[in-house]
Amino acid sequence: MTPYPLPAAELKGEGMTSQRARDRLANSLKEEGIRDLRVVDVIRNTPRHHFIDQALHSRAYENTALPIGHGQTISQPWVVARMTEALLEFGMPQKVLEIGTGSGYQAAVLAALVPQVFTVERIEELLRQARRRFRQLGLANLRSRYDDGKLGWPDEAPFDAIILTAAGDTIPTRILDQLSPTGVLVAPVGSPSRQTLIRMRGDGQGDFIQEELGAVSFVPLLGGIG
Ligand code: SAH
Fold first, then answer.
1. Hey, where are the domains in the chain?
2. Does the annotation count 191 as an active-site position?
3. Sign (positive or negative) of CA dihedral 226, 192, 142, 69
């Protein structure tokens, strides 16, 4: 059973957006080291074709990033899976902040797993489209905001988990300040050509345990609103 209120035909997709294509993607995520089966199942069940332009529907369940306009991309499913499992590894966060809504796909994956998702985007048109998708999918536990995500979402802080889906050369301190004392943050950090996925975990005493989770490639984290 699908939890989404869209017409079954549109959700299921056809041809390359079929259940078979989704199963293939889910299997390839497992083969490529994604261990959290809750995450694999959510990716299997989330209609990724719904988050991209119709012209690209036939590629929706390929394990690649795809353009979403405004020079931005919907992340590669493997990266979405890896970041999501890294956020969930120490327990289920109740309140999650995402910086960089983009297509809304990563936010929708999170909303299927955690009680509350907050997401911030600096390009108004992308946010408008993402909001329409959230409404069509009936994602009621997701709130979004048009703002510079480098400021986080102070009124809703603290968050148990924070995910950045755009890369800066450092993690903005205002965002780190909004992480709960034992919260988990996952973010790509580095120059446009060379980035590492970083996980920071609060130790409860005001310090962080930092780990590197491998090389990734993201669009840049920009300042201000677009
Ligand atoms: N999570 C998205 C990935 C989109 S790409 C998805 O699943 O589709 C990253 C997004 O981050 C882009 O839409 C870009 O506009 C946005 N972004 C970059 N800098 C930002 C900032 N300072 N505040 C908010 N969003 C930002």
1. 65-216
2. no
3. positive
